[in-house]
Amino acid sequence: MALSFCGNDDHFNSYNVTNGVLNNGCFVDALNLVPHVFLLFITFPILFIGWGSQSSKVQIHHNTWLHFPGHNLRWILTFSLLFVHVCEFAEGITNHLHLFMPAFMGFIAATTSVVYYHNIETSNFPKLLLVLFIYWVLAFVTKSIKLWKFAAYSVGPQHLRFCITALLVMLYGLLMAVEINVIRVRKYVFFANPQKVKPPEDLQDLGVRFLQPFVNLLSKATYWWMNPLIMGAHKRPIELKKIGKLPIAMRALTNYLRLKDAYEDQRDPDRSPSIWRSMYRAFGRPILLSSTFRYLADLLGFAGPLCISGIVKYLDPQNSERYFGVYFMSSTELLQNTSVLAVLLFLALVLQRTFLQASYYVTIETGINLRGALLAMIYNKMLRLSTSNMSMGEMTLGQINNLVAIETNQLMWFLFLCPNLWAMPVQIVMGVILLYYLLGPSALVGASVIVLLAPVQYLIATKLADTQKSSLEHSTDRLKKTSEILKGIKLLKLYAWENIFCDSVEETRGKELTSLKTFAFFTSMSIFMNAAIPIAAVLATFVMHHFLNEKGPTPSEAFAALALFHILVTPLFLLSTVVRFAVKALVSNGFFTWGSNLSTLSNINIRIPSGQLTMIVGQVGCGKSSLLLAMLGEIRYSNTSESEELSLVPLRIQTRCERSWKILRFDPFSFFSPHVAVKANQYLHWMCCVSHVCCNVCFCRHEARFKQRMLELTDTNNTAYLFLSAANRWLEVRTDYLGAVIVLTAAGASIWSLEYGLPSGGLVGLGLTYALTVTNYLNWVVRNLADLEVQMAAVKKVNSFLTTESENYEGSMDTSQVPENWPQNGEIKIQDLCVRYDPMLKPVLKHVNAYIEPGQKVGICGRTGSGKSSLSLAFFNMVDIFEGKIVIDGIDICKLPLQTLRSRLSIILQDPVLFSGSIRFNLDPERTCTDDRLWEALEIAQLKNMVKALPGGLDAVVTEGGENFSVGQRQLFCLARAFVRKSSILIMDEATASIDMATENILQKVVMTAFADRTVVTIAHRVHTILTADLVIVMKRGNILEYDKPETLLEQEDGMFASFVKADM
């Protein structure tokens, strides 16, 4: 390489211009330096001297606002320009200075142009773009002159320098066109009225901190905008408020409306709308973009094996033709230079991983947006489910939880893997074609092995899908049972049924674990096959190659083939995964249906006068609540007089927003004491006359508020998810680039070593082949370590729950010390009892003393919060008895094992709790009673005739929460449940709150008869129900205020009990 600028290989005067200056190659190359020097001379003072005073008048909170049209195209063209300049530099580096100096200066100028453009764009000062426009024009003209002279001297496409120059002319022309378009749109020059700009709404909101949609292309590709967050997270954990809000386009409401519009557009009488078509219409475009990125990444992935093949061959370039007195390299010679191939390998890896990470990000973002839209759609659908849907068991709480927690995630994960569905076949076909190019017909043997073993993979994937479906069913059942346990945990503990229900959950969990173990087995089989198929294919290919050619493949062929088979591992590994998630998505894609045609109300004709209070009364199960629910649109009904079905939404609008604005009341004060119940009654008629605003708040605005809250929570979850995805991409891009540097280093070291004859070509091929896999392994190691750290948070939570102090189930007495028939008499002594719910809280019962004789009927009353229910819970040791004691039949209950204590007493709670299953299971989950005893209990509870009429009788179905029975009927079942146990002590904690007064009076008499010889403690809901009690205890603020027979207390006219009775009359 000569040091003079205008050197040549023909040893004549390089500065000879006899034939004209444009016919001198050195002069043309020098002319090409002029635009680059011009740009650097103009832009450097602007960039480094300072131009901050020329800042934008538009105030925005981020320097990420993309102002100018053609932004992404400009960045793509500039990166392409940089790559071509690298090729130009590589082509001329071994020759004279004028052959590579313009390329070097062009690379510097192109880099400066993009930095200059970025600063102009973020400062919103477009007039300075005129410099770039002039630069593109000058560069286009000078390169066009060079291309013209090449053509004049018969330098054509067969020469690399001609191809590079032609590409540069095209790129400069396109960049010039981009600049003209900016001038046309923004009107910043040659126009009197420049276009006024307004920042996006998101960037005017300081709370929006997810900036991926707004940053420049380089920052998008490398996630550079995440740097401040990553650095901050390294110093201290990220708080939820730090991640801010989502951009409007990514919020759940936006995506819900997009999905809903796509769904509604399909409404056709001939066919029902498809959620799949809706998903495609709403989110198909980003999936296509992601697929494009994936195709580019997969195609670039094949550059690695080809570059390895070229490097191992180590073909020496041969000088050939000369023009303008210098050597012109052919296009193929460049690809035979090992140094060039090493750089190309590096650039291919960088681009391949960049496109791959971009594909991952776009699919994950789209999947998260889809999940947010589906959650909003499910929530809106859930709010529109009629009561009959829940009561008839068509849709249970467990199913809804499963739909929200699992099924939407399955669809999201399917979308994550969606580009693989069509990328993998292309990757496999391309791999086989290249193998055929390298090894000939023997490569078809390897392909045949893959094809023959594909059905095995498909079979395994099918088994995986089946076991996954089974596992989901068991998971739904387990979630349902767990949810029921949590909802009825108080009753379970009071009845000592924890073990029964835990056993049921564990049984379901056992089935689920069996499915999961089967799933794990088939997963292992799938992983094994994914690893074994490439090995088998390589082995078969090499054996067949040796058989056909009577010799093994060359090192370049062998290691290129090995690298190709390594590439094929990924699509083969993902094949079963993608199929599995596709099946999961098909399983998850369910739909809601409306209630059945079972009649709850019939022949109802009623008119409720406006402005008046209307009372609806009737026996338990007669349809009172159903009528009110029908008026609220919660139960579907048909107007038989008009013979037309009324749709749900118009019905709700009619009942909720009509001008009369009636207030529908489900006895809202039934759970309060008479004193508290009641002051509200003074305002009830006034409430009926309040303007429509009040009713709108009650029936419409709260629903909107809940929807809004759900959308906010979904957005918060999605924000964290998107930041996590962006952080993963930030990490993976950097580890990928580090892996590419490792490959470049290995290639460079190998080439340098070969020049000194150190390793053989085979060892070089081996080293480069496995250097290519370093990127994947490095990525997975870092990712798995990070994921492990994240998942350990779940372990921490579980451990925290396990270390939470639980009840002392053992007690100080052994079960064998407790008489079998305890408590036989039902004597209760309360001695200086002090109770609190937590050691940090004040006591709710303070030094309470009372004595209840065996078989005595005791009523306890008091205002809300007086300690009535706390006393009932103390009998079961459900609260902290930190002082005093309760002695039942001579045994301090605190010394008893909790299971023993609670299994020997009976209680009927204020809230009726039923579990899904059968009537028999709800009455006797321990399965210790005969049918006669169960029917006897139902008869006492006034339910025998109703249960007999049900299909199955005692085995009739009870849906989740007992929703297929009225509230009153549920309470009667709870009474029957207590009768079944036949304990000598019965606690009734406002047990008649949900039944009508007539039934209540009957039941009170039944209780007095059925438990005539038993001790009954009644927490009074209505004080008239305890007027026949043997003893009345009146409580106030955790103390016993009055304690005597009811008739004695009534004689004290100024007493509290007397005032309660007067209020209740």
UniProtKB/TrEMBL annotation:
Transmembrane residue ranges: 33-52, 73-93, 99-117, 129-147, 159-178, 295-314, 334-351, 411-437, 443-461, 519-547, 559-583, 737-754, 760-782
Domain (ABC transporter) spans: 828-1062
Keywords attached to this Swiss-Prot or TrEMBL record, sorted alphabetically, are:
ATP-binding, Glycoprotein, Membrane, Nucleotide-binding, Receptor, Repeat, Transmembrane, Transmembrane helix, Transport
- Which BP terms in the Gene Ontology apply to this protein? potassium ion transport
Q: Which GO terms describe its cellular component?
A: plasma membrane; protein-containing complex
Q: What is its main location?
A: membrane
Q: Report the residue ranges that make up the ABC transmembrane type-1 domain in this protein.
A: 296-584
PANTHER family of this UniProt entry? ATP-BINDING CASSETTE SUB-FAMILY C, ATP-BINDING CASSETTE SUB-FAMILY C MEMBER 9
Pfam families tied to this protein: ABC_membrane, ABC_tran
Q: Could you give a GO molecular-function term held by this entry?
A: ATP hydrolysis activity
- Highest taxon, organism lineage: Eukaryota
The similarity annotation says:
Belongs to the ABC transporter superfamily. ABCC family. Conjugate transporter (TC 3.A.1.208) subfamily.
Put simply, this protein is called ATP-binding cassette, sub-family C (CFTR/MRP), member 9
